[in-house]
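chain below, 84 aa
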Amino acid sequence: MRYLNLIIADLVNSNHPKSDELMNVKELAQYLKVKESWVYEKKLKKEIPFLKAGRFLLFKKKDIDLWLKNPYAPSLNISKQYQR
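prediction:
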């Protein structure tokens, strides 16, 4: 579990282009200027694209920006792409 935390921290804090930036729930709520509960509600209804890394809920800025352009389009749970 500690290894997973280090990987996630590295991904979040690395020097990737801003479009590849990962945000947690708190950061996404600040970015969208909404409450954290709103983010959780959208995630539970699968109305917003998200990644799940263990117990961590992450959001790619690039995916959120695309979603913001058309929030009524069906959202994909991005993490399904990475399941084995």
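Helices lie at 2-13, 25-32, 36-44, 61-69. The mean pLDDT is 80.
thats it, cya
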